[in-house]
């Protein structure tokens, strides 16, 4: 499926990262969410596939933006990892930044549950 254009994302992921890195604790910032309006749309495989492609395109755009400031990602993947505190991750990138792990990840735990794109930090 063809990647879609970035939709309704913050103008600067770098500014959000700087805000997260100033905190002493781990942080999460939701960048985008698709909430299925009804059971029929939640079980529409074509819609879900299209949304996954859109979210993956958003992650690619964010990866390019964040890599300009934090270098090449230290990890990337398309499945859950213990390093990211989310279930149902289907795409992610990670960087080391100021002694922490910085990540951008999309996840979808199950049908009927929203698809969400996150920016976050873990570990100190």
- Integer tally of domains: 1
Number of helices: 3
Query: How are strands sequenced across the largest beta sheet?
Result: 1-5-4-3-2
Helix and strand sequence: HEHHEEEE
Largest sheet: 5 strands, antiparallel
Low-confidence sequence ranges: 1-6
**Envelope shape:** elongated
Residue-averaged pLDDT, rounded? 91
Instruction: Tell me what portion of residues adopts beta-strand conformation.
Output: 25-35%
**What is the percent of helical residues?**
25-40%
Structural class: alpha+beta
How far apart, in Å, are the first and last alpha carbons? 38 Å
Describe this structure in a few short sentences.
It is built from three helices and five strands, in the order αβααββββ.
Defining key terms:
124 residues; alpha+beta; five-stranded antiparallel sheet; 3 helices; disordered N terminus
